[in-house]
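Table S7 (text form). Paired inputs.
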Amino acid sequence: MPDYPDTAVSEGIVNALIHRDYLELGSEGHIDMFDDRLEIYSPGGMPDGHKVQDLDLRNVSSRWRNPIIADIFNRLKYMDRRGSGFKKILDSYEFQEYYTEKMKLGFRASNSELWLILRNLNYNLNNIGNDFSVQIVDNKMPIKMGQQLEKILQCLSEQEECPCRDICALLDVKERRARQVLQILQEQGKIESIGANRKSRYI
């Protein structure tokens, strides 16, 4: 899975460019990347003086500090006139299959600065350890997928072979998703596929 939703990153950068205070000489917007987060910094707080952390981010009124720049970005289809940037960022995270409260976005502002903190969706997700533990690549495999891998290994340890349709039923997913998870186990050498196409079975 991507570390960050595309919409959240693009909206965050666009907002930082449109709403920053260009009168603060010597200041600059910047993006800092860490293992667990991405921070987008913009000079200048909220135009109306409010602190963003004290607001309902789904109902923030749109006030443009730089209307000419905002109009250009609107014509380029990089933003809406109604000012829905915060809502788009929130929705892009909450829409993710593995979203939890730990991935909640961070917003903070002072009178002269504003930060948007995007959480890495794949960072520090724990694997379920047992006798059928699966190698987690770079500790970035989503928890739900780790559970699906464990279920498959448990099932195959109890019966000699299993067709894909049974794996679909076991995980309660569609065939495409089941084959994606099975492919991971094959690449790690945990299981093998015998047969071809829809008649394939796993051991």
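Next pair, protein 2 of 2.
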Amino acid sequence: MRKKHRKLKRESPLCYIVMAILALVCLLPLLMILSASLTDEVYVQKNGYSILPMYPTLDTYIFLVANKGEMLAKAFLTTISVVILGTLYSVTVTTFFAYAISQKKSTFRFARILSFFAWFTTIFSGGVLPWYIMCTQYYGLKNNLFALFIPSGINVWNMFILRGNFREVPEELIESAKLDGASDAKVFVKISIPLARAGIVTVALFNVLSFWNDFFLPQWLITDSKYTTVQKMLYSMLSNVATLLNSSSSTATMALLEHITLPANTAKMAVTVLAVLPIVALYPFALKYFVKGINLGGIKG
């Protein structure tokens, strides 16, 4: 036992060093993105990217706000609405489903059937085309706010994590509450949900990340600019800049580019910062729930 303890003690500093190196490796791209967004476009074209901003300037951000400021504001408002509504909807559906399949057969006889259906969808899929037809022609999920979160209402992996959290609730506590006259609904609201709070927060965090970064639903189900999200808006902005730079066949465009340096490289970094910054600001506050929820959900999941 002493030898094992000494061995673990000797290896601990090495583990910390390895983890610190891995953290720096993950942090380095973010620092380079932020640095490039604050660097002069001409310097980036000549010398490439660097960890620290060279010739710091806010010209790229000013360019984006001046040309696409109103559209960016609408896109952010739409995305924030989708994140809030989608997270509430998804967490509610996932919580009810996870709690149902976590029950014993004597309590809810369809628990195993629902669990099998959830597991089955992780292996087999009907395909994108049938999904698109169902969403647009049968459910009316096209060019409206609901199309941006209803199709992603439940994630099976998140559901199984939450199921593991519900299975961690002591059975004695539930039996005691039922002996005192508590109904199944009261046990769910007063006991199971508070004790599974870490898992619920974890699932909510996953949904926030998913809805904020989602590009496929806006791309497939949205053609009206009124419902453009941040991700689709930023992609369109980058496409427009690239199109302008590549359309140098006309004499007028070539003359314009001789006097103006469009922030093509730094714009990519700037829009990336705009997309990542809200999530980076939110993540530290939910980190403790994130780790705890994953650990609890993996014990009996």
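Confidence is low (pLDDT under 50) at residues 247-260, 297-301.
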